[in-house]
């Protein structure tokens, strides 16, 4: 199977695009039920918002039609998982937590279907819902298919936990589909302290470090291994022929009494097998080079260990919540095939950019779900107008996207910044996206009012279909904006229909913004300005939890930031 990246709802893609018994390893790190949304989190430099999330899962964990449909699907499938989920609904009611569990259950059922008989699934979760998820997995895979609960220490103790123990770990629930499954033991290298204390001997002829081990068998009741060797009758570890071979190879060292000791070389020892408690992989801090700004981004080392342990070269690895693509990069580096799915267009763009930097990736993968012609754009708009909005904005490489909670609309969907000469170094263009068929001049007039309110130099009204003559006239009435690049229509209308026909709007040159802008000090200075300085966007240090204080959030386009992987903000 070739590598492929999907943009869309993972449930739909699993059902329609991924064959049964086709995947060797599944890793998923879904949004946890923690009273806040996940995926890509950004702080707003312009509004008093603690944090908010891009709209992918904005309404996913509230009980509604989608959760009811997921619950109904599970009930139709029946079996143990249906009984468990039904019991949970009786206990939890139609709560946000129950919505989360119903939505996860129907997806986990599909994930088991696509998993090969010797495949393995890892579900990454935390204490908010891990106990419920384990019961659901028992119902789907069978309690006897539970293999491990791995504890990953993701952080040290936090000083802000005053009335409880500080939380510092995640859990990875590991389930296998069948009795036989792929397993490659992973080892922790010996520490320098251990090497000095146990492998201090050096072989003069080779310079190899070694230690001396026991040749005796711990089981005294082994008649076939009981014989005389060098004057001593004992129960030995090996048969006499093997003992003779080791002697001939110089692997036996004899004490003064003639007892043999086995010479064990350091370079032949893989290390100590890992247990189910992993404390050796630190979380990504603010200075980590691989850090991309995702609050839930996991270290590449963590995913490389999982992929190495439960798959072989050429196997297929699936991540249905691929986010910033750590699983995909690990699979690519380890020569596995992969499938990545994400419902957020910005996540797909991050993965694309990440793969460009992986040595053996290139463009050797497929990308599906993103419209490639007008007909597919219409289908996306009809299917999910919010994802259409994000996709349409990305056609123009915005530096930032504004997102409102579903149902709210303040008239600004995106922002682009352009150099505009000395004195006023940056100009600002706002975008408004309309994916429906019922549009008219009133909407254009309203957007012109938004440009005035926001004191923006330019505006781009993006519609699905070609504008009417009255809409074009309304846009033209906004006049021209004088920029250092010449006079440009202040308000332009561009339709996706025209876009695919090759008709593009007149835009000023747009530059990538420097990563040095990630300064908390600079951000405080920028708040006083009428127009925010585009050189001072901010990516999040950590996930703070809780609900956003404002309906409107600002998200930065990772493809329009020259980001070297280092967050220079001081730790907060």
UniProtKB/TrEMBL annotation:
GO biological process, one term: methylation
InterPro entries assigned to the protein according to its UniProt record, in alphabetical order: DNA_methylase_N4/N6, DNA_methylase_N6_adenine_CS, RM_Methyltransferase, SAM-dependent_MTases_sf
Compositionally biased spans, kind Basic and acidic residues: 522-536
EC number(s) stated in the UniProt entry for this protein: 2.1.1.72
Keywords: Methyltransferase, Transferase
Region (Disordered): 517-550
Family matches, as Gene3D superfamilies: Vaccinia Virus protein VP39
Enzyme category, top tier: transferase
Domain DNA methylase N-4/N-6, residue spans: 23-350
One CC-aspect GO term: cytoplasm
GO molecular function terms listed in the Swiss-Prot or TrEMBL record: DNA binding; N-methyltransferase activity; site-specific DNA-methyltransferase (adenine-specific) activity
Catalytic reactions of this protein: a 2'-deoxyadenosine in DNA + S-adenosyl-L-methionine = an N(6)-methyl-2'-deoxyadenosine in DNA + S-adenosyl-L-homocysteine + H(+)
Superkingdom per UniProt: Bacteria
Similarity-based family: Belongs to the N(4)/N(6)-methyltransferase family.
PANTHER family named in the record: RNA METHYLASE-RELATED (PTHR13370), TRNA (GUANINE(10)-N2)-METHYLTRANSFERASE HOMOLOG (PTHR13370:SF3)
Name this polypeptide is given: site-specific DNA-methyltransferase (adenine-specific)
Organism: Pacificispira spongiicola
């Amino acid at each position: 199977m070739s590598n492929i990246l999907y943009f869309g709802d993972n449930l739909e893609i699993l059902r329609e695009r991924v064959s049964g018994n086709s995947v060797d390893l599944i890793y998923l790190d879904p949004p946890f039920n923690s009273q806040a949304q996940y995926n890509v989190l950004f702080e707003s430099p312009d509004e008093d918002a603690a944090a908010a999330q891009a709209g992918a899962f904005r309404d996913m964990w509230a009980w509604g039609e989608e959760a009811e449909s997921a619950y109904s699907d599970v009930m139709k499938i029946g079996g143990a998982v249906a009984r468990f989920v039904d019991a949970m609904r009786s206990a939890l009611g139609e709560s946000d937590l129950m919505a989360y569990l119903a939505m996860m259950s129907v997806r986990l059922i599909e994930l088991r279907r696509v998993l090969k008989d010797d495949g393995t699934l890892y579900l990454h979760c935390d204490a908010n819902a891990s106990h419920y998820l384990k019961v659901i997995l028992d119902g789907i895979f069978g309690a006897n298919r539970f293999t491990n609960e791995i504890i990953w220490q993701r952080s040290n103790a936090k000083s802000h936990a005053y009335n409880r123990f500080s939380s510092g770990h995640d859990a990875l629930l590991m389930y296998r589909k069948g009795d036989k499954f792929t397993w490659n033991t992973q080892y922790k290298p010996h520490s320098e302290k251990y090497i000095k204390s146990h492998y201090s001997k050096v072989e003069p002829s080779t310079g190899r470090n070694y230690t001396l081990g026991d040749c005796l068998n711990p089981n005294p009741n082994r008649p076939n291994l009981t014989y005389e060797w060098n004057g001593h009758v004992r129960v030995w570890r090996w048969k006499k022929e093997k003992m003779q071979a080791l002697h001939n190879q110089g692997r036996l060292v004899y004490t003064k009494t003639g007892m043999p000791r086995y010479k064990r070389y350091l370079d032949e020892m893989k290390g100590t097998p890992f247990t189910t408690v992993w404390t050796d992989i630190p979380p990504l801090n603010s200075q980590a080079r691989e850090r991309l700004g995702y609050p839930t981004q996991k270290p590449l080392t963590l995913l490389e260990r999982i992929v190495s342990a439960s798959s072989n070269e050429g196997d297929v690895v699936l991540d249905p919540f691929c986010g910033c693509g750590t699983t995909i990069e690990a699979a690519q580096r380890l020569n596995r095939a992969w499938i990545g799915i994400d419902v957020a267009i910005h996540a797909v763009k991050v993965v694309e950019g990440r793969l460009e930097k992986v040595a053996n990736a290139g463009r050797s993968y497929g990308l599906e779900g993103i419209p490639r012609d007008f007909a597919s754009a219409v289908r996306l708009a009809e299917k999910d107008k919010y994802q259409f909005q994000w996709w349409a904005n990305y056609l123009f490489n915005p530096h930032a996207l504004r997102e409102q909670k579903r149902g709210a609309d303040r008239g600004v969907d995106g922002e682009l910044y352009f150099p505009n000469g000395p004195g006023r170094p940056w100009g600002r263009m706002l975008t408004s996206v309309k994916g429906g068929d019922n549009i008219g001049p009133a909407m254009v007039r309203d957007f012109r009012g938004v440009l005035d309110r926001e004191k923006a130099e330019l505006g781009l009204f993006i519609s699905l279909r070609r504008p009417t003559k009255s809409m074009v006239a309304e846009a033209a009435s906004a006049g021209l904006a004088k920029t250092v690049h010449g006079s440009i229509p202040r308000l332009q209308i561009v339709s996706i229909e025209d876009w695919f026909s090759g008709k593009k709007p007149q835009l000023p040159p747009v530059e990538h913004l420097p990563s040095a802008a990630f300064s908390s000090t600079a951000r405080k200075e920028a708040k006083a300005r009428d127009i925010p300085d585009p050189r001072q966007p901010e990516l999040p240090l950590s996930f703070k939890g809780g609900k956003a204080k404002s309906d409107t959030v600002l998200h930065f386009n990772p493809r329009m930031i020259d980001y070297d992987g280092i967050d220079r903000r001081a730790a907060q």
